[in-house]
Amino acid sequence: MESDVKTEIEKISFEDFSKIDLRLGKINKIEYIPNLNKVYKAEIDLGSEKRIVVVGAALYYKPEELEEKLVIVCTNLSPRTIGKIESKGMILALDGMDGKPLLLTIDKGEKVDLGSRVR
Fold first, then answer.
1. How many angstroms separate the CA atoms of 50 and 39, rounded?
2. N or C: where does the chain have the smaller number of CB atoms within 10 Å of the terminal CB?
3. What is the percent of the chain with per-residue pLDDT over 90, rounded to a whole number?
4. Separation between Cα atoms, residue 47 and residue 67, nearest integer Å
5. In sequence order, what are the residues at sequence separation of 6 or more whose Cβ sits closer than 8 angstroms to the Cβ of residue 65?
6. DSSP labels for the chain?
7. What is the pTM of this model?
8. Number of Cβ within a 10 Å radius of residue 104
9. Domains in the chain, start-ordered, CATH in brackets?
């Protein structure tokens, strides 16, 4: 597989990186959004709160494959409206084979509280 990494990547400071709030969440509920075939509306449990996040994975996953999945969520991204749904975060993924998003997660054997911060 060919990498997306540029030869010269713009550097950011540790202070800039530390502004990104990444948390462990669990997809409680996922549903289709009318008239949009590439994205789902997901309810994410972050421990102390639940959020709605639009997930661009509908072409690759069935809803039942994503429900209950532990995921890494950027929680301090500015909200963005997609198909009349306000998305309050972003689930992290990498590009797999054929463009399939591979959602970042943790080992299921680990006991970690929802909302735990990624460092």
1. 19
2. C
3. 84
4. 16
5. none
6. ------SSPPP--HHHHHT--EEEEEEEEEEEETTEEEEEEEEEE-SS-EEEEEES-TTT--HHHHTT-EEEEE-SSPPEEETTEEE--EE-EEE-GGG-EEE----TTS---TTPBP-
7. 0.88
8. 15
9. 20-103 (2.40.50.140)
